[in-house]
Amino acid sequence: MTTAGDMEDGFPATRLFNQGYSYTYDDVIFLPHYIDFPTDAVQLNTKLSRNINLSVPCVSSPMDTVTEASMAVSMAALGGIGIIHSNNTASEQSSLIRSAKSHRIPFASSDIPFLSPDDSISSGSIFDSSPCVFITTNGSKSDKKLLGVVDKLTWEGLADKEARISSYMQKNVVTLPNTYKFEDVAGYLATKEMDFVPLVSGEGEVIDVVSKWDVERIKGFPKSGLPSVGENGEFLVGASIGTRESDKQRLEHLVKAGANVIVIDSSQGNSIYQIEMIKYAKKMFPDLDVIGGNVVTMNQAQNLIQAGVDGLRVGMGSGSICTTQEVCAVGRGQATAVYKVSSVAAKSGIPVIADGGISNSGHIVKALTLGASTVMMGSFLAGSTEAPGAYTNQGGQRVKKYRGMGSLEAMTKGSDARYLGDTAKMKIAQGVVGAVADKGSVLKFIPYTMQAVKQGFQDLGASSLQSAHDLLRSGVLRLEVRTGAAQVEGGVHGLVSYEKKSF
Ligand SMILES: NC(=O)C1=CN([C@@H]2O[C@H](COP(=O)(O)OP(=O)(O)OC[C@H]3O[C@@H](n4cnc5c(N)ncnc54)[C@H](O)[C@@H]3O)[C@@H](O)[C@H]2O)C=CC1
Ligand SMILES: O=c1[nH]c(=O)c2[nH+]cn([C@@H]3O[C@H](COP(=O)(O)O)[C@@H](O)[C@H]3O)c2[nH]1
Ligand SMILES: [K+]
């Protein structure tokens, strides 16, 4: 006869995370549970904060090499959300929010060229980022009256490339409202047999231009969750602020621009500065969700919950570009931090964002099962087409720059203000500047990543985030720490060479 004692297998989370060790995702492994549903039955819909629902548990980090308008649009289109960084002026940050909100479909052209009728086009490279060039009186986007358009074919057919644009531009440009959804624009291009069509705001400003090639590209992306949109049909967009006096004005700008949620961005959120900022924001804008952080302990979390936060961001020193633990000797292994903070946050119904240290779908499964409601990512997204900045070549590889917001380079760009005027006039970096490999579009790799996450949830016998959290807390779900050798075994090993292609 088997007794309960004989069946003791693995550790419940409470025991594993109370032994005095700081564990991160790679240290721990879940024991598989029981499957009684197909992968597609797994639901990943979740909450970012008390009042913001998402169909996909992914958030892009408020970093200047990760989230500007293009990333925010694509994350929301996927069913997640982007948090626009604040390493800029309040008006620059607000216009990034407005730009994201003016789109209904993921950016087709990131860089739309404008010229004046008196200009000429000497090189075809202007058509690299857009199927056409728009013509306004002053040659800029700010002049909202569209005089004409020049497409690549017309320009290529010109005998005299020095000719003034006014002599050959096509007048009476057909446009569509920027409020049109992807299906409407695609349908219009197909029925009219047009190559491209500009999308224009109510004020006449060109917001985007969609070509029939963009339509094919976007149609080729796998399906994701329902897009994150507000009642007005606009994409949900978040924004970060700091805890300086000037951030109160910034907050007002961001709310005016339509920010749906605010993240108070700090490495150590349990401070008098942040608590005052939370109370101020909640008093001024009671309907606005405010996410506090970063925290890694139950005590820090409790303080911010008492101050009134609607969500918590967890992680200190776990980010790929972070040197905080090295420089300041504070932080926590991310698996332990997520588990501990989530345990206390769940009691108050406050969703947790597991921020930093995500480098594969397994890390996402671990973060979400340990109690987080979403994951926030920097490096995982920084090599995508939607991240700010251009690709460069490094040793034969296409890369994009990715830097810590506490790196000297980022600090001297804008977050400077937080260091100047402080007693600490000597800047100490807590992050590095680096590069990440080209990963293509988030519209492609996030859906595949979410499919992998669903497979992980199926192995755990969890058909939703809530079910995973319940299984973990009730002790049904068991974990173990992996030894160094077990971690090696868990990876690819013993091969002379191999190619790793995930999808
Ligand atoms: N998650 C992480 O592990 C880390 C993240 N970072 C990122 O780097 C950036 C900068 O982070 P932090 O240096 O923590 O920024 P921070 O603005 O929270 O703190 C910078 C310094 O300013 C002080 N300060 C803040 N508000 C103040 C006020 N009202 N009056 C007087 N002093 C005040 C703080 O105590 C601290 O000494 C953020 O984007 C953050 O997310 C940096 C380090 C670690
Ligand atoms: O110690 C730090 N110094 C920095 O300069 C820095 N910049 C960002 N962050 C944090 O790292 C998170 C992104 O981490 P990943 O690249 O691992 O996704 C982000 O979401 C932040 O929480 C920093 N941490
Ligand atoms: K680190």
TrEMBL record:
IMP binds at S320, D355, G356, G357, G378, S379, Y402, R403, G404, M405, G406, Q430. It holds the Pfam family CBS. InterPro entries: Aldolase_TIM, CBS_dom, CBS_dom_sf, IMP_DH, IMP_DH/GMP_Rdtase_CS, IMP_DH_GMPRt. Residues 165-215 form the CBS domain. Its EC number is 1.1.1.205. It catalyses: IMP + NAD(+) + H2O = XMP + NADH + H(+). GO terms for cellular component: cytoplasm. It comes from the Eukaryota. NAD(+) binds at D265, S266, S267, G315, M316, G317. Mycophenolic acid (MPA) is a non-competitive inhibitor that prevents formation of the closed enzyme conformation by binding to the same site as the amobile flap. In contrast, mizoribine monophosphate (MZP) is a competitive inhibitor that induces the closed conformation. MPA is a potent inhibitor of mammalian IMPDHs but a poor inhibitor of the bacterial enzymes. MZP is a more potent inhibitor of bacterial IMPDH. One of its GO terms (biological process) is GMP biosynthetic process. It is found in: Cytoplasm. Its main location: cytoplasm. Belongs to the IMPDH/GMPR family. Homotetramer. This is Inosine-5'-monophosphate dehydrogenase.
